[in-house]
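$ ./design --mode recover --in tokens.txt
reading tokens...
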């Protein structure tokens, strides 16, 4: 399987759909898939035709995390440098997802384990099939949660639940994840992709400049003081108020018609 086949990419109606595509390995990451996913997210940054991203997985699972097949300690040799793996592969991709000023929707089908779960949580809106489960599997193999897991879980769930999920590696089913506020919603398995595609299409047709500014503000709020956030809102609103999308939105409202946003 070539790198391009490990992540399928399709652009339609402003939505770039990226599908992790190693279903025989539950879409676990090898180096080719790392590079292919990063290329897809970079395209979303660089291509103005991309107005939203939809990330999902092929087959019966979203992503089982890192493929451990290439790291079998029974083969001997030096211990792996997993910090290097994070620096080279996971962390750059996560930074690209978080810094992309376009909406990123994740549709979680089946298991999202280890780094696979945490890549999903880095996305802006997460929908999951009711049969899906999120597993911080790191404790089972003597590792710490990576790919932003300690950051996102602590901020979203708080310290008690974050510690319990990571220290026990207990699976968290999609409906409970939604009840806890870890994801946006859990939906019937058969409806997952239809709902995720409709959501991504709606976002892509929206005022994406303002949506991108909103994403940035929400992400920065956790570390800003109130005064800093008020100033950031002022600056972003100034930019949004000068946009073609704002002019079109007000005009469409006054003319009682649907707005035709351009993302500018």
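writing sequence...
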């Amino acid at each position: 399987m070539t790198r391009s086949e490990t992540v399928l990419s399709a652009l339609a109606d402003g939505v770039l759909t990226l599908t992790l595509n190693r279903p025989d390995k539950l879409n676990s990451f090898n180096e080719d898939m790392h590079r292919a996913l990063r290329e897809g997210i970079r395209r979303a940054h660089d291509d103005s035709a991309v107005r939203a991203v939809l990330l999902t997985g092929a087959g019966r699972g979203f992503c089982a995390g890192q493929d451990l097949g290439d790291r079998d300690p029974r083969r001997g040799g030096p211990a792996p440098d997993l910090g290097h793996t994070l620096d080279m592969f996971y962390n750059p991709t996560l930074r690209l997802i978080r810094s992309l000023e376009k909406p990123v929707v994740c549709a979680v089908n089946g298991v999202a384990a280890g780094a696979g779960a945490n890549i999903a949580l880095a996305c802006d809106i997460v929908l999951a099939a009711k049969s899906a489960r999120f597993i911080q599997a790191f404790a089972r193999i003597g590792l710490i949660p990576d790919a932003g897991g300690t950051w996102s879980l602590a901020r979203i769930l708080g310290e008690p639940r974050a510690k319990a999920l990571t220290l026990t590696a207990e699976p968290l089913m999609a409906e409970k994840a939604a009840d806890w506020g870890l994801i946006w919603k859990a939906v019937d398995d058969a409806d997952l992709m239809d709902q995720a595609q409709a959501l991504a299409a709606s976002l892509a047709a929206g005022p994406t400049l303002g949506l991108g500014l909103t994403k940035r503000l929400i992400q920065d709020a956790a570390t800003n003081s109130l005064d800093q956030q008020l100033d950031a809102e002022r600056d972003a609103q100034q930019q949004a108020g000068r946009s073609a999308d704002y002019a079109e939105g007000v005009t469409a409202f006054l003319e009682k018609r649907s707005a035709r946003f351009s993302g500018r």
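exit 0
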